[in-house]
Every structure is written in C-alpha cells, then in structure tokens.
Amino acid sequence: MRIRFLALIAALTLVSVLPAQAQQISLNALSNYLNQLTSAEGSFTQINADGSISTGTIYLRRPGKVRFEYNPPEQALVMANNNAVVVFDNKLGGEPETYPLNRTPLGLILARNVDLGRANMVTQHGYDGTATTVTAQDPQHPEYGSIQLKFTGNPVELRQWIITDDGGSQTTVILGALERKQLADRLFNIEMERRANR
Fold this sequence. Notes:
The protein has about 200 residues and is of the alpha+beta class. The protein has helices spanning about 1-10, 25-35, 105-110, 190-195, and strands at about 15-20, 40-45, 55-60, 65-70, 75-80, 85-90, 95-100, 120-125, 130-135, 145-150, 155-165, 170-180. Strands 1, 2, 3, 4, 5, 6, 7, 8, 9, 10, 11 and 12 form a twelve-stranded antiparallel β-sheet that branches. It is globular, with a radius of gyration of 16 Å. The chain starts with a helix and ends with a helix.
C-alpha cells in the first residue's frame, strides 16, 4: 500500500499542459512548463501492480504541495507539504505514515526549480510518432525508482505514466482533464487532516 501511494504521488505531480507540437518535446520545454504549473485540479485512474483499479482527484500547488483523494471503496488520502509525504488510510487505522519528500521522485518535480536537463536525471527521451516519452529518476538516488511519462500533442498533454519502484513493481496512472485553478490552503493542511482523522 505504501509503495503504491508513493508511486502515484511521484507520477501525478508531473501533470502539465504543454504547447501543441507534432514532434518530440524538448526537456527544456518540459521543464519550463512544469515550472509554470502552479495550481491545478484533475482526475486520475490508477492501475495497480496487482491489476486492481483505483480512481480519485489530485490537487496540486507548486512548489511543494499536493493532495490525492481516493474515491470509495478506497479510504485513503495522500498529502505532501513541508517536505513530507503523509499517507492516511482509514482501512488500516492508526497513525498516518510519514516519509521524507526528498526520498521520493515527487521531490524532484515539486521542487521550486525543475530541471529535467540535469545530468543523469532523464534516462530515456523518445518519440514514437504519436507520443513523447520521458523516463526520469533522482540522479543521486536511482534506487528510489523511476517515472516514465507519455505526452501526446494537439494540444500536448500528459496522458499516462508508469512508475517502477525499487522492487521492480509497476503502477500505471491515466490522467483525466487537468484544470488550472486557485486552490484553498486547507487542502494542503496536514495537521488539520491529522486532527480530523483522530
């Protein structure tokens, strides 16, 4: 469960709206648009490594903040803020699990300045005639896993990603429409969620 949620977090934060192109999108263009993405909301469908399917809503505010609300029958909420990732799972009960943001690929994307051109961050960058695919990892800690992103054009959108975790398990996420909008501070207030879940 922990790996599944952290993999989703890492991938979902890469959502971006890019300029329409009919060719491979450059790493510089991807970095620029990720850096311009400040506040957005959208839906997602997640295909887990065991074949099960989850759906929900993502709320994103860069730098450093994201919230994932899972639809029933899941009883989960995942948040990132103040350099931490917190997983609330009412099915399991007990205290929420907390992890350092910088130990997940999410930290690379929620950073104030995203630079996909950084040495050894992107391990693959290709175009198959329909979509641009980018595979990224933490160049200092490739053992944390990788993110493969697929972008299509006209207009260019992030359609799908595949997260490969440190054990080799894969999680696929398909993204619905992403709406750029202002989001309330309370959506990213981890302490308020802790009190609500006690």
